[in-house]
Amino acid sequence: MSIQAQINEQTIRNAVLLEGVKEDQVGAILMMLAVLDKRIKAMLSGDELVELPRSELKRLLSEVRGEVKAVLGGMIESLETNLLAIADQQADFEVHNLAIVGVVPIKPSEAKIHNAMENNPLAARGISGDGLLTSYFAEVNQREQDRVVSVIRQGVSQGLTNQQMIQQIIGTRAHKYKDGILQITRKQAEDIVRTSVQHVHAQARQAVWVANDDIVDEVEMVATLDGKTSATCRSMDGMRFKIYEGPRPPFHLRCRTTTVPVINEKYAGKGKDVSTRASMNGQVPSGMKYYDWLLTQSVEFQDEVLGPTRGKLLRDGGITAQQFASMQLDRSFQPITLERMRELYPEVFRKAAA
User: Fold this and answer.
1) Which Pfam families match (predicted)?
2) Is 241 helix (H, G, I), strand (E, B) or coil?
3) Side by side, which strands form the sheet with 240-242?
4) Is the four-CA dihedral 104, 108, 113, 119 of positive or negative sign?
5) Longest C-alpha distance within the chain, in Å?
6) Rounded distance, CA 354 to CA 337, Å?
7) Collapsed DSSP state (helix, strand, coil) of residue 255
8) 174-209, pLDDT tens digit by residue?
9) What is the mean pLDDT of residues 101-119?
10) Which of 38, 130, 289, 333 is deepest in the core (most CB within 10 A)?
11) What residue ranges do the domains of the chain occupy?
């Protein structure tokens, strides 16, 4: 097996293990959020809010906001501590990974690694503002405070009972508490965890590549071969960029796309590339990209993933899988609409009769 193939296999194995790290972090965060449910319920279990004087209601809303801020702040503080540890672990992994070439790679200082994860913005869609982790965390905290307080204000104005407001916030047992607005908070928390871990994973490894730019020439995108992969990641799969250029995952919230370092040919050595990569239905050759893999699946699955029109274009448009991939994104690596594709590639639509 070639050195590049060994590095590819180690990288994919690490990406799989990283999904387990995300699960552990999500579990810990959800346990902390369960405390918020209990605290809000206790705070709304006294006198009916509709009967409170304006000054007392204002004080209660301030206390509720403070509780949400404190719990989410504690959650984020715990996550940030864990992210630092994950960053160091990912840097150690990448140094070990590159050592396969037969030299001792340089490990950047902790300061450089932490600076990369904290000061390089997330490229993920759905992240507003400057895209920095700290700003993202602060925005989510503020938004959730506003959401809970708004439900209480509206409940009072509508004459709802405390119990009705509790149900709107926490949810009902009949629906396993998934019908309250805190379910949105839980989803937001899971988004934060999965996205920030993926960002730290990418930035820590990027810092190692920059420190070893004599070993690493390029970075290749590697998407997950299943039906849940986003349109962006499907088309990014297999793309290569110089280590100082191009985007890095996460490309959207909960992104699972990882990256593989492409080794300089003077270190690559000899050996047959017999490595494989995982897919939802077994191992496939490592050189198989997303749309090549998708073409091996059933027509029904293709249409489920792409929609019937794009599925027909892939199968019958007279183009290769990689040409199809290049049609899906604009110059900013954002998905383009079918209408825009039809304007740009009318001959493909004509051949596919789509």
Assistant:
1) Phage_Mu_F
2) strand
3) 240-242, 216-222, 258-263
4) negative
5) 80
6) 14
7) coil
8) 988 889 998 988 898 899 899 999 999 999 999 999
9) 93
10) 289
11) 3-215, 298-354
